[in-house]
Amino acid sequence: MTDRAAEVRFKPQDLLLALGGALILDTYEDPLPTRVFLDVLGSLGVSGDATRSVLTRLTERGLLTRHQDGRVASYGLTDTSRRLLRDGRERVRAAEPFHQVSSDWTLLSFSLPETRRDVRNRLRSRLTWAGFGCLRDGLWVAPGRVDLDRVVAVGAEVDELQVDGFLASPAPGTDVARYVRRAWDVDALRWEHEEFLRRWERPVPRESDPLAMFVLLGAHWIRLLRVDPVLPERYLGEDWPGRRSAAVYRSASEALEARAGTAFAALVEDARARR
Predict the structure, then answer these.
(1) CA–CA distance from 223 to each of 34, 140, 176, 196 (Å)?
(2) How many CB atoms lie within 10 A of CB 195?
(3) Out of 57, 126, 149, 236, which could bridge 240 as a Cys pair, Cβ 3.0 to 4.6 Å?
(4) pLDDT value at 184 more than 60
């Protein structure tokens, strides 16, 4: 079953990483034939060329290993990708991923030469995943206490990277809500939750492809976790949909996971038998 939402909303890399974290990590230690990835992403409307391209890119970035056995290429997770996927899985499986328990805020400033845009882009991506919003160029803020060592490790090899971090509490009279809306587009965050709910709150049809749907669900959930910084609810207005989103994800995941795992195991067995 092809779901057109996968083509519109999610890059092949998003789908591949969702697959890796949900069904490959800690289950398949040996590399998997290319055919496995072509079949899974193909069921979501991704072309074979696009799948091969993202496999090559992730290999070049050190997130996959490539092995050749005759005419059959296989890909496996690296230590780096396993670490990243395990870190991500903590948030994916969190009971209350959108509930902020801390009253503190983390401030971070960094500077990099313009020539290191590659590191800048990776660092910005990690900051966003960790819940940071940008107040102005080089100054970021996140709700709660953030482990900065894990965030900035992406640029640790760059001598020119300068990072300063602080824990802070708002001074009396500070309009925190104004700063929240300055650093984050709260209306866009609400829309992301509502879009997730529109897509997954209704029961998953029994006749649908459980593997394709499970990977798509995972990619959509990771997207939501990435864009939502887990802000204190008192700054978000009434009826914030975070708790509903978490409940809907758990329900949809429970409905699909076992069937998806069985389908994926059969796909792997078939691809290995063809070698």
Answers:
(1) 25, 20, 26, 10
(2) 16
(3) 236
(4) yes
